[in-house]
Amino acid sequence: MNGMNVAPFxxxxxxxxxxxxxxxxxxxIIEVSAEVYNFLKSVxxxxxxxxxxxxxxADNRAQTVRxxxxxxxxxxxxxxxxxxCLHGHSDLLEYHLDSNIEQVTLQLTQQCxxxxxxxxxxxxxxxxxxxxxxxxxxxxxxxxxVDFFVNHSANQKEVCIGFYGGEPLLEFETIKAVVTYxxxxxxxxxxxxxxxxNGSLFTFENMGFLExxxxxxxxxxxxxxxxxxxxxxxxxxxxxxxSAIETNLRxxxxxxxxxxxxxxxxxxxxxxxxxxxxxxxxxxxxxFSANQIRSTLVDDFFSIEKVVxxxxxxxxxxxxxxxxxxxxxxxxxDNKVSNLVRSTVASAVEKTETEMREQKELPDVxxxxxxxIPGQRRLFVDIHGDFYPCERxxxxxxxxxxxxxxxxxDYDKARALLNVSQLTEKECRTCxxxxxxxxxARFCDNNSELSAELKLSNCGxxxxxxxxxxxxxxxxxxxxxxxxxxxxxRK
Amino acid sequence: MSExxxxxxxxxxxxxxxxxxxxxxxLEPDYAICxxxxxxxxxxxxxxxxxxxxxxxxxxxxxxGDILPDINxxxxxxxxxxxxxxxxxxNSIIGAPPKFESVLCFAKFSExxxxxxxxxFSSQSHPPAIDDQCSFEAENVFEYESNxxxxxxxxxxxxxxxxxxxxxxIDKFETSLALREMFLSNGYKVSQIGSRNYCELMxxxxxxxxxxxxxVDAAKKIVxxxxxxxxxxxxxxxxVVIVGVPGSIQSLNDEYTxxxxxxxxxxxxxxxxxxxxxxxxxxxxxxxxxKLMSESCKYKFGCAADCFHMSNLFIDFTMTSERKSIVTNKxxxxxxxxxxxxxxxxxxxxxxxxxxxQDCRKLxxxxxxxxxxxx
Lengths: 491, 375
Known about the structure:
- The complex is a heterodimer of chains A (491) and B (375).
- With 491 residues, chain A is of the alpha/beta class.
- Chain A has helices at residues 34-45, 49-52, 58-73, 93-99, 139-151, 172-185, 204-212, 225-231, 242-255, 257-261, 276-284, 311-328, 339-355, 411-418, 425-429, 452-457, 459-484, 486-490, and strands at residues 10-14, 19-23, 28-32, 84-85, 103-107, 158-164, 190-197, 216-220, 263-269, 292-297, 365-366, 379-381, 387-388, 403-404, 408-409.
- Helices cover 34% and strands 16% of the residues of chain B.
- In chain B, helix 2 (83-94) packs parallel to helix 3, helix 4 crosses helix 6 and helix 5 crosses helix 11.
- The termini of chain B are far apart.
- The A-B interface holds A 89, 91-92, 95, 99-100, 102, 150-158, 184-191, 350-351, 354, 360, 363, 377 and B 12, 38-45, 47, 80-82, 85, 88-89, 284, 286, 317-319, 321, 323, 327, 329-332, 335, 338.
């Protein structure tokens, strides 16, 4: 008898140094002996526990069973699984959208002066996303959006207006008008502005304005001139854009230093390239070395052609990430860590620390993590005044349209996006990654409906990524123990 | 209403002031709240304020031009905002058309801003006094006791009910007012010290300013607060004393330390509490958590929490992590009662929603039961 009538809700993890199980109910990772690991692995798989004891002595068996009982008494190894999927804030959706909106992002234009190879709006013969167009947001729509935002953010002490495109600086006059209007309308509340730009249209006038209004700026820049120009070209003549951006940034750094400090660089990594050169570029070039750099992989979600990383990229990027982890443990000089991975790794570690907070038992009714409250965190308003949960979803998909300035929110549609766990309730209720899932409605949208099939096609990747995250978390802890000498003693 | 001396316009109004509106019957007869003005950015314009059972219906406005001409008093409550907004608030008041006869200012303005306000009103034929309504009684006690080297604590022989909380604006003031109303309506004589700085409007004492003064020694604060309560008891001869404790009773964690709950600690050293109501975040609470919190109070403050109120405030951990400072948010109040119904098994320490009339009555009965229990 294994003493367990129903398999505990756990996930087994083995590292080169030790053995663990992740307890889904408490959200904790527990280190156990190899014997206990093997025993629990058999139990979790539903196989005969005798197999786990095949080569062990009677004393060891008794010890293992005793330890398992102890763990159960400590509150671990519960078999509890949710009974039903429903997001915890589902009943409160109306309230959140009425009073709690944090950020509104305005799509000022669908036009861009770049035609980047990997841009979702550039891909031709593809209907899963809109394409570049000369359409722009009328000023009236922009100002009405500000009014709407004021009336739907009463509980927020700080709010943010984001300017997005296309290329938003093509519509600088609208930006000025919105900022002037919002300053009045949001009087009494902390108001921040962000803009995501390709960096080619900075002028003395708009830089002065952005500095005066303390904008946070994200400039997309992919690295060395060779790498950047390969993908990011001017729409007008197909030439590379690096030189134009670099010139603007130099002017900004010299003439608007306060603004320059607020520039973040977003680097889109193409994993088909090797990357040591790229990392060196962002560390050694004085123009970028002091700024925060965030890197993301090419988003091929809306592309037919999927991106497959090369071996060189795989090896080089992991070496750099490992160095960044060592640096966090003070075992590697910080000044030798690549700027490109420093903030990404540090924020991932911080995020995981938060996500690994101990939890109470899973409730009977819950949802997997992943979906945000659609429209509350970052309401995206397109040029027509239509609402989307954020700027990353398909604008050609009706299921993603959660309302508009004239009609207000369509709560039923927003609620459906919030409750995508219900699409795959059977699978989600028993998935060990339920607390760490990243799938939101975007991953379920086949451009005509929310699809369980499409969603499930992502599950393997998500579980693998959560497993990696937990392993990184453990590795960091093991390295910390090494640093303190504890790991040696224990072994 | 026309016989009220002060017909008050509140600016800048936020829902932090709502407890006063919900208990307008507790206002001193000289005061009547007649208008609410909120900066447009706070998103309250056009909304009806929650005035509880009062027949009064107050719609929040965003401009002084919208208020009736017979309003003669401006009340500026303490508000949470930055220097830039404080300046904007002063400028809005200066630009206001009504000629106020008096200004009751509880906000933390700079000296320059106060002078700016005074200059503005000085052109009126009868310029209003700009009163800082801090408790003069408290000031006097402090002056008197600060020269006293005797540090003993005076016995306080009247039952004390304390209302403390795990955060700011977590319904401590609402709970205190609800209790005041219950005690008064049941014929008890109540002395009260509130966690806000405008309690004199409602006929009781604001939390004394010396307790917030960093120049005053901690031990001295304890002694002075003890003598302050003693003096109130001697003067008012109450059946019960209600003390609302400002701020939070503890750190949230190592990162968000909340003043370490020091003010609460000092307060509880000065008085012997007979019943403690702890106002807490909205959360799916377990009995183990409630017991732990109650015990924590017992060993830190000498009194276990007898009862919890669950507010509709919660910590938004995602935004907190993003902004590197605590971000709180609210859920609909109706959801609190729903959440309380779902606590299973029923907690060994009661958790109530003070906004629910039945719960409020239940709390009052619990207090009476405990205070009148004779072993």
